Structures are given as structure tokens and as C-alpha cells.
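User: My collaborator sent over this chain with a note saying "see what the structure looks like." That's all I know about it. Can you take a look?
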Amino acid sequence: MKRNITLAALLFTLAPLTAFGQTPDPSQVHIRNITAIGNGCPDGTVGTMVSPDAKAFTMFFDQFIASGGGGTPITEQQKVCNIGLEMHFPQGWSYSIVGVDYRGYASLDAGVRALQASEYWIQGAGTARARLSSQFFGPYADEYLLQDRLALSSVIWSPCGATRALNVRARVAVQNTSATKRGLMTIDSIDGEVKHIYGVQWRRCR
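Assistant: Without extra context I'll predict from the sequence alone. Here is the result:
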């Protein structure tokens, strides 16, 4: 497995995320609205949940699986989901995503590769984006847990005084040119759901 983290300009239960200090009243933080478009997230297959302390939120997918080989249609080799998510929180606060946990399962014959990648940006925060990716190489057949943390200098803060959508583009892909070999990539194998847990850092607006 090879892990790749690149900063373009600044992006599933798992190990605890780091506490980031003060937060707004957790009872006033929730997901206001979510849109999801893509072959990895058909209608009704994406859910969200904010943690009780407002320091993380979880995104769930239940049909986010890429597979290739053995006569599998080429359209199944890559799955993508473009997500727009509006966070509701009290005035006077700004937030950023500072870490992401991924959990899943990969089953790859020798010579088969798989990719899991995420990109995120906050509407109204300029052109800054974060891109995180991990590659897996066969033979491989096991669950995986990836925990990526962004340096404080790399985080993107939501604009103060406005509600802006968090945009996430998630992708899983299997690269297989052999008709006899097989590969499969999911994000969370225990309960059949994809889970991304995003660590959230808060700061007061000035």
C-alpha cells in the first residue's frame, strides 16, 4: 500500500480524533442540507452525523464500491461521489477540516491496483483545495484503516459571517487490465457502509 498526500492549495467507529479546543454550543451544530451526485452515491445512499462534541462529523455511503475483472463492466471500475454539505452553526464561528479517517476493505489479485482519493474545498474560501489519496497493490486482501492529518498551515477556514457549503469529491477505483484477475475496493466492510470521519477545528471570528 502506498499513501500519497499532496496539497494543491488545501480534503469512516474509528480511532478517536484529536480534540481541537473550544467549540460552539454542540446543540447548535448540525448538517443543514446535503446533496450527493455520482455513481458512487445514488439517491438515498448517503447519510451524515455530527458527533456530540461537534468536533467531527461522519459521512456514510452504502453503495460506494469499485470492482474490476472477470467480466465486470468497465463502468464499475471507478466510483465517484460529488457532495455538497451545509453546516449550521452559531454566528461568530468558523470551521475547518483538519483530519480524515477512512476504513474499508480491498481484495486485489497480483498485478491489480486500487486507489482511494478525496478532495475538498469550502465555497467562498477562494481556490484552495486539499487532495488526499492512497494506493493499494495486489496481492492484497484485508481491511484497512487510514488516518490522515493536515498540518495547521494547510487548513482552509470557512468564511466568517456567511454559511458556505463544504464540497467533497470522493473516488475509489480499481485498475485492472487482465480478464482473469479480479479486484475490489470498498470504504468500510464491517457493516456494508462507507464511513469518512472528518475532524473539525473551530475558531472564533474576529
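A starting point for your reply to your collaborator: The chain has one domain: 2-204.
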